Amino acid sequence: MNRIRLFSFLVAGWLLTSCHSDAKNDRTRVLVETSRGDITIELYNETPLHRDNFIRLAKSGFYNDLLFHRVIRDFMIQGGDPESRDALPDQLLGNGDTGQKIDPEFRYPQYFHKRGTLAAAREGDDKNPDKKSSGCQFFLVWGKTFSENELNELVRSRNEKILQQEVNLLFQENEALLQNSEDANNMMRLQILMDSLRAEGKKRIENENRQFHIPDSIRAVYRTLGGTPWLDQNYTVFGEVTEGLEVIEKIQSAATDKADRPLNDIKMKITIQK
């Protein structure tokens, strides 16, 4: 490589590194103060709907004096329910919201549910098939570490679920044909048709690249740092903790009642630093 080409290569590398660094430096920083310590979070610019909503609520003082109302060891800590402000000790929490939903902003595999990520809570798929996020509730991931075999099983199970959902749709689309075979008591024809629909569902998923997978770089994080990989592409990750992971560890170890609410209230105050 001649000197001019070498110089160009080095400059290009410097620009890429510089841009990447600038992108991180341009993130909004958030301070979460709790009775167990402080947590600093950076919000991702690649999830602008969630970022801007969180900033707006924080600036308005919405989160101040709300509780981390749902805490599960080796999983996560959740807060942001407006009904948790001044809640009675035995009050069931978790249903409060702002009345709006936020469209999902999945940025997998760029962002995933590693330990310390900030993600949006939401209602389950049965009520919320579009996976829209709560207008205010969020959680901070703790999770656990996973072996390679556990990650392989998670991928297999997730893809089987995706396939089953697609096959169920095909069964609905071909309900008349399936019913005719069953009414005629032609079990062989029925089985052939069901197998054919399953094969068609598998082909559709492959052609549309809808299989779930975990890249090697992400597997390494889940094996060492830990997290909650089963939530990937199901909940929107929109930030990460830069300081205060030990505070999440303290909170997720708190004693809780049967509804996962800490026995001693853990309040929050959230302010925008930059």
Mean pLDDT: 90
Describe the largest sheet: 8 strands, antiparallel
Helix content: 25-40%
Return residue spans where pLDDT drops below 50 for at least 5 consecutive residues: 1-22
Strand content: 15-25%
- In total, the number of strands is 10
Q: What string gives the helices and strands in order?
A: HEEHEEEEEEHHHHEHE
Shape: elongated
Task: Give the distance, in angstroms, between the N- and C-terminal Cα atoms.
Answer: 44 Å
Name the structural class: alpha+beta
Helix segment tally? 7
Comma- or semicolon-separated keywords:
7 helices; alpha+beta; 274 residues; single chain
Describe the model.
- The protein is an alpha+beta fold and 274 residues long.
- Helix content is 39%, strand content 17%.
- The strands form 2 sheets. The protein has an 8-stranded antiparallel sheet with strand order 3-4-8-6-9-2-1-10. It has a two-stranded antiparallel sheet with strand order 5-7.
Write the layout of secondary structure elements.
Layout: H1 3-25, E1 28-34, E2 37-43, H2 48-59, E3 68-72, E4 76-79, E5 101-102, E6 117-120, E7 133-134, E8 138-141, H3 148-173, H4 175-183, H5 187-207, H6 216-224, E9 237-243, H7 245-252, E10 268-272
Antiparallel strand pairs: 1-2, 1-10, 2-9, 3-4, 4-8, 5-7, 6-8, 6-9
